[in-house]
Amino acid sequence: QKEVEQNSGPLSVPEGAIASLNCTYSDRGSQSFFWYRQYSGKSPELIMSIYSNGDKEDGRFTAQLNKASQYVSLLIRDSQPSDSATYLCAVNIPSFDTGFQKLVFGTGTRLLVSP
Amino acid sequence: KAGVTQTPRYLIKTRGQQVTLSCSPISGHRSVSWYQQTPGQGLQFLFEYFSETQRNKGNFPGRFSGRQFSNSRSEMNVSTLELGDSALYLCASSLTTGTRVADTQYFGPGTRLTVL
């Protein structure tokens, strides 16, 4: 089982719709969860971080965390063509040999928003 | 505040050569992590440095190495380049307080390495 899993997509939604991106993780000890957006040819940029169960809203973005189900999601309301990008889920995973945590990324979900 | 900077932005090398990439973190950030990104494997963790010490290492061969200087700037080196090393190499810095929790990471623009 991969440490962080995402559906690679593409996820196609019309402009104005809600896009729902999902991510599951394997380590119950994970405490920090992040969503990054990456445009083609560019580096990842942070959208949101979430640390507690429940919802966290920031503008058109809502992150949802359910630690019992080991599931984190990102909702994008009123999707715009400019939201078309790859969305990366990142989870901090303890490293057994060093004790330090490292950030592990999913392979990303490609989102396409059509006008 | 200036963001994370990486140099060079593009590199073309041939098999067997070695390469050194440089990363300057956001001012005040002491943790620097390196990642390799390829279309097939996604973002793969290489290693993380904090206060000039490597704290964590991914599953890459010994040809991949790094270091961090007292001003938190970091370099990574790849020796004996292989075709499969062609990738986007990303550096990220974070304002970790030195605890064991991975903090929010901010990425540089990356170095695109092509191995011929």
Q: Briefly, what is this?
A:
Chain A is mainly beta and 115 residues long. Chain A has strands at residues 4-5, 11-14, 19-25, 33-38, 45-50, 54-58, 61-66, 71-76, 85-94, 101-105, 109-114.
Distance between the termini of chain B: 37 Å
Percent of residues of chain A in helical segments? under 10%
> What structural class results from the helix and strand content of chain A?
mainly beta
Terminal Cα span of chain A: 37 Å
Percent in helix of chain B: under 10%
Shape by Cα distribution of chain B: globular
Proportion of strand residues of chain B: over 45%
Strand content of chain A: over 45%
Question: Number of helical runs of chain A?
Answer: 0
C-alpha-based Rg of chain A, rounded: 14 Å
| Counted beta strands of chain A | 11
Oligomer: heterodimer
Radius of gyration of chain B: 13 Å
Q: What number is the mean pLDDT of chain A?
A: 92
Number of strands of chain B: 11
Mean pLDDT of chain B: 92
Q: Which of globular, elongated, flat, extended, rod-shaped describes the shape of chain A?
A: globular
Element string of chain A (H = helix, E = strand): EEEEEEEEEEE
In terms of structural class, how would the helical and strand content of chain B be classed? mainly beta
Largest interface: A-B, 26 and 24 residues
Largest sheet of chain A: 6 strands, mixed
